[in-house]
Amino acid sequence: MQVRLLCDQGDFSAARERVDGSGDDAAAFYLARRLEGQDRVPEAIQLYGVARQFAHGAALAKRMGLDAVRNGRRGCGRGQETRARTAPPLLWA
């Protein structure tokens, strides 16, 4: 509940601290959706992973044309492109 209030107040950094400290999957998912709405895509993808909603993160990355997102950086580094291509089809559907 506190994460929702912080997001409604526009304090996304404090909401992120709450999510990181709580381990609450639902709070991480909510914050990811809000950050996605703010076009903060790398952060949203990372939080989808925290929320264990990998399909949402993969779909967002695909929709935004990102091959891989690692540590908030866009694009593929050497060797990452192969791993992205060999990911299970369910993640990229």
Give the structural class: mainly alpha
Look up the CATH topology: Serine Threonine Protein Phosphatase 5, Tetratricopeptide repeat
Distance between the termini: 32 Å
Count, helices: 7
Q: Roughly how many Å is the radius of gyration? A: 14 Å
Helix content: 55-70%
Beta content comes to: under 5%
**Biggest sheet descriptor:** none
Mean of all residue-level pLDDT scores = 78
Give the total of beta strands. Answer: 0
Shape: globular
Task: Return residue spans where pLDDT drops below 50 for at least 5 consecutive residues.
Answer: 71-93
Structure at a glance:
This protein is mainly alpha-helical and 93 residues long. The protein contains seven helices and no strands. The protein has one domain (2-92): Serine Threonine Protein Phosphatase 5, Tetratricopeptide repeat.
Question: Tags for this entry?
Answer:
93 residues, mainly alpha, Serine Threonine Protein Phosphatase 5, Tetratricopeptide repeat, 7 helices, 0% strand, globular, disordered C terminus
Verbal overview:
With 93 residues, the chain is mainly α. It has a single domain (2-92), classed as Serine Threonine Protein Phosphatase 5, Tetratricopeptide repeat, CATH 1.25.40. The protein is 66% helix and 0% strand. It is built from seven helices and no strands. The protein has helices at 2-8, 12-22, 25-37, 41-50, 54-63, 80-85, 89-92. α2 packs antiparallel against α3 (25-37), α3 packs antiparallel against α4 (41-50) and α4 runs antiparallel to α5 (54-63). The protein is globular, with a radius of gyration of 14 Å. The protein starts with a helix and ends with a helix.
